[in-house]
Amino acid sequence: NAGVTQTPKFQVLKTGQSMTLQCAQDMNHEYMSWYRQDPGMGLRLIHYSVGAGITDQGEVPNGYNVSRSTTEDFPLRLLSAAPSQTSVYFCASSKELGYNEQFFGPGTRLTVL
Amino acid sequence: QQQVKQSPQSLIVQKGGIPIINCAYENTAFDYFPWYQQFPGKGPALLIAIRPDVSEKKEGRFTISFNKSAKQFSLHIMDSQPGDSATYFCAARDTGNQFYFGTGTSLTVIP
């Protein structure tokens, strides 16, 4: 099993550009989520999904969109990137909502100029 | 507002020492408290976790102490090794199954 994979590993965007961060898992997990990690802030939940076709907002959802058309994939879209979105983004999955252990991907480091 | 407060921000200990990382929370509805370990360039990985009905949990060299009345919990690393050098995050789960993370502690174990 590859676990949770994320692409790209690094990305530089200009303000106003859009892009999609990809996340995939091969563990047949129902629950997937996106976090951003900023210095001095820890990890903060952006959006999550409890299954295909179901998504909801986390703590810091503004500026991000998600969709979940399959169990395996959970892409995160930035529609109009802003410097405040410079961060490291982690995708995570767990067996189901309420299951204890989350498995994290290796992260995407995004810089918005 | 930080739901889970973590300290210290960084910690340096000698090999064999016992680093202690502390976390505090206010929301009494939190029902699960994990600790994650993160190495540079990697995602966090679950290290050990505790529920609020237990005061202590040990797994190998890692121990969580939990004080429900004080709303505090801490991670102790016994006989610390250079390979333990990493960033450690505490977290708490609310009744909506959302996780809130502390700000992280960068641990360096000197050989």
Which parts of chain A are unreliable, with pLDDT below 50 for 5 consecutive residues or more?
none
Rg of chain A is 13 Å
Strand percentage of chain B: over 45%
> Which stretches of chain B of 5+ consecutive residues score pLDDT under 50?
none
Separation of the first and last Cα atoms of chain B: 37 Å
Order of helices and strands of chain B: EEEEEEEEEEE
Most extensive interface: pair and counts?
A: A-B, 22 and 24 residues
Major pleated sheet of chain A: 7 strands, mixed
Radius of gyration of chain B: 13 Å
Structural class of chain A: mainly beta
Oligomer: heterodimer
Number of helices of chain B: 0
User: What is the average per-residue confidence, as pLDDT of chain B, rounded to a whole number?
Assistant: 94
Largest sheet of chain B: 6 strands, mixed
Question: Overview of this structure, please?
Answer:
- The complex is a heterodimer of chains A (113) and B (111).
- The mean pLDDT of chain A is 94.
- Chain A starts with a strand and ends with a strand.
- Chain A has strands at 4-7, 10-13, 19-25, 31-38, 42-51, 54-57, 64-66, 76-78, 87-94, 103-104, 108-112.
- Chain A is mainly β and 113 residues long.
- In chain A, strands 2, 4, 5, 6, 9, 10 and 11 form a seven-stranded mixed sheet that branches.
- Chain B is mainly β and 111 residues long.
- Chain B contains no helices and eleven strands.
- In chain B, strands 2, 4, 5, 9, 10 and 11 form a six-stranded mixed sheet that branches.
- In chain B, 31% of the residues are buried.
- The chains are: A mainly beta (113), B mainly beta (111).
- Chain A binds chain B through residues 4, 35, 40-45, 48, 58-59, 90, 92, 97-98, 100-102, 104-107, and chain B through 2, 4, 6, 9, 32, 34, 36, 41-46, 49, 89, 91, 97-104.
Notable traits:
heterodimer, A: 113 residues, mainly beta, 7-stranded mixed β-sheet, 4-stranded antiparallel β-sheet, B: 111 residues, 6-stranded mixed β-sheet
